[in-house]
Structure formats: structure tokens, C-alpha cells
Amino acid sequence: METLYIIIAIAIAVALLFYFFLIRSSDAKLGNLREFAPDGFRDYDGDTRSEVYIGCKGYVFDVTKSSNYKPGGHYHVFAGRDATVALAKMSLDPADLETNDTSALKENEITSLDMWFKQFKEHYKYPIVGKIMNSSKKSH
User: Fold this and answer.
1) Which of 27, 44, 75, 84 minimizes the number of CB atoms within 10 Å of its CB?
2) What's the pTM value of the predicted model, to 2 decimals?
3) SS3 for 20-86, per residue?
4) Is the dihedral of CA 67, 73, 78, 79 positive or negative?
5) Which value, in Å, is the radius of gyration of the alpha carbons in the chain?
6) 40-93: per-residue pLDDT in tens?
């Protein structure tokens, strides 16, 4: 019985270490991100550079591992761009990539944007490689 308690204690300790050092530390690293101008990652489109970056809600994600964002992919229009408004509107229109001002978005569009951000960060686990610097625009 004592052995069982030791095994359970070790399992709990490992789980806590995993949480604090891997999960929490990845969120803590967000304070030390590279800063990009709103158009400062355009070269990260899979053409000019091999990496593919997409902006969403003020952050820059490295989506290189997905063929959807590479040249010829369904969502290549987002590559190297701040796709915040386009994602919120579920739009492939290049005009929606010309702004990151979310102040005019409707409630359902904000919900959609939040869903995309969560998918990028938690489901697909795309690394956040930077922040988009633009203090004059509102971002939800």
C-alpha cells in the first residue's frame, strides 16, 4: 500500500512539474517576443522566406507546418499578413487584410476571431513568434 502512495505522489509531482515548467513557462515567454510593424512580416509568406507567419489579435504565429498557408494552399492569402479582420469576418478578400482595426467588428465576428486565436494557440499549437506593434488600432 505504501508503494502505491509513493507512485501516486510521483505521478502528481510529474504532472505539476509539467504544468509549471512547460505550459506556464510558454505563456511567460510571451513577454519576450520579437516586435513586428503591422507590415513587418510580409516576407514570411512561404515565397520570399521559407517560414510562414500570420498575424492574429496582435500576435504573430508561425504556421509553417501547415500546407494550408504555404504557396498554393487554401489560405495562402493570409501568409505574411495580419489576418485579424479577415479571420473575424471569415473572409478571403485581400481588402480585409489591409487593416487590423477591430473596432467596427460585430459581436459574432469578435466571437469568430476569438475562436481562430484559440485554435491557433491551443489546438494547432502554432508557436507565437512575435507581437504586432500598432498602438493606434484597437484589438479585441
Assistant:
1) 27
2) 0.74
3) HHHHHHHHHHHHHCEEECCCCCCCCECCCCCCEEEEECCEEEECCCCHHHCCCCCCHHHCCEECHHH
4) positive
5) 19
6) 999 999 999 999 999 999 999 999 999 999 999 999 999 999 999 999 999 988
